[in-house]
Amino acid sequence: MTSALKNIIYNCKQATFLIEKRISGKITAAETLQLHVHLAGCSVCKVYQKQSILINRVFAGFENADFKLDEAFKKTLTEQIEKEMNKN
User: Fold this and answer.
1) What is the pLDDT of residues 45-71, one digit of tens each?
2) Residue 8 in contact with residue 34, Cβ under 8 Å?
3) What does each C-alpha distance from 44 to 23, 38, 39, 49, 50 come to in angstroms?
4) Which of 35, 41, 54, 64 lies in disulfide reach of 18, CB 3.0 to 4.6 Å?
């Protein structure tokens, strides 16, 4: 298996990035193919995709001004997310 194909198949961090990018409507044809290949074999990212779509639908009607998080909470949340993402 080529190195490029291994990177697509086994890179959940890249796949979650592409999922979010696709939800925002800004994904290329090549990225769509990469994501499709990854999702074909990764049940975890499939669940992530479903959850992300649901979250976006739930919060679609809210304005950005409706949500304010303090900086300490944002930092802690970001660190926890990065820690979990780096486990793969």
Assistant:
1) 999 999 999 988 887 777 766 667 788
2) yes
3) 17, 10, 9, 9, 10
4) 35
Would you report the helix, strand and coil content of the chain in percent, each value rounded to 5?
75, 0, 25
- Structural domain of residue 71, as residue ranges? 3-85
Can you give the pTM of this predicted structure?
Answer: 0.63
Question: Closest by alpha carbon to 16, among 32, 29, 35, 30?
Answer: 35
Cα 33 to Cα 36, 72, 83: the distances in Å are 5, 38, 27
DSSP 62: S
